[in-house]
Description:
By secondary structure, the protein is an alpha/beta fold. The protein has helices spanning about 30-45, 70, 90-100, 115-120, 125-140, 155-165, 185-200, 200-205, 210-225, 245-250, 295-305, 320-330, 345-350, 350-359; strands at about 5-10, 10, 25, 50-60, 75-85, 105-110, 140-150, 175-180, 230-235, 235-240, 255-260, 265, 270-275, 290, 310-315, 335, 340-345. It folds into two domains: about 5-250, Aldolase class I (TIM Barrel); about 310-359, no CATH class.
Amino acid sequence: MASNLYVHFPFCRRKCTYCALHSRCGSAQAERNAYVRRLAASLADLPCPRRFRTVYFGGGSPALCSLGPLLRLIDADEFTVELHPLDVCDRLLKELRDGGVNRISMGVQSLDDATLASMGRAYTADQAERAFAAIKEVFDNAGIDLIAGYPVESASPAAVAQRLARLRGWGLAHCSVYALQQEPDSILGRQISRARKEGNDSFLALLKTDDQVLDEIRETAAFLESIGLMRYEISNYAVPGRECLHNLAVWRGEDYLGLGEGASGRIGLLRTQGMISLSELRRPDSPCVEKVDPEYDSVERAIFRLRTREGVDVSDRPQWRAALERFAAEGLVVRSGDSSYRLSARGTEVCDSILAELV
Ligand code: SF4
């Protein structure tokens, strides 16, 4: 079985406006307890010792569930739990630490109160700061997520710099910075399509241009570097040695077991989606499991390496060489040695087009 495990918790307090992830709001405690019991039964099915190299509990808000029964079943060298700022309390943090968790990722998303309110996040930047300080009392290895390019947030360089400045004393070990995706199935996506249909120009004027979003990301990257966090993947920055090993494993093409509604997984030639019971892996007609062909498998495992600072070695993929040499001539990738390529700073901004051309 895989040495990496992702477990998805599809429960949220309320739906954030930008989010199209698999999650639901207003669940009852009994429903969440039943969900944990199903996950626990799956994990108990794994051979002992149930020790993984990396485990990642993501969501949703994992802390809306009672995690104790799951923590008792598994161990990991790196064990991450995602927290919402409103989840954070001393009792939970100690339960996680005592249960073997050693890394926390908190979704902050914005450091501007008006933007947080517009996103439906239900906390202020001060509350997020206090929550992160409480996390740092217990976990040194802790980081946050931010979103760049949200419509109501000012993109002026002065405003971006002012927002970021408050992170200076947080002691971040890690930061993920994602460009806002205008997901058609999100609340925001529906607002945008309604505004387009109705010609609501004042709303549409709030949307950021691609250049504004790129400028904000560049400024954020420079700020994070100034406080010691280096970019190690297109959207991820860490103090050296504090990179997220779970995500690196996925980008490096390793297998990972994905459990829970909305969780994807990769085991050999199998791809899983939304699998809760491991018995699905043995069912030939399982709707959660798809078998891919070996060529698809090997391309998928290689391609995401290009997202990382390490880049990709193409000695066994000579068919990519001509395109990568062209990208190198355009300054989008950098070759090292005979056959390794990684993205340049400019390449990180157009990575999707580069990947699309390679596949
Ligand atoms: S962003 Fe996170 S907390 Fe918000 S709705 Fe999506 S999964 Fe839930």
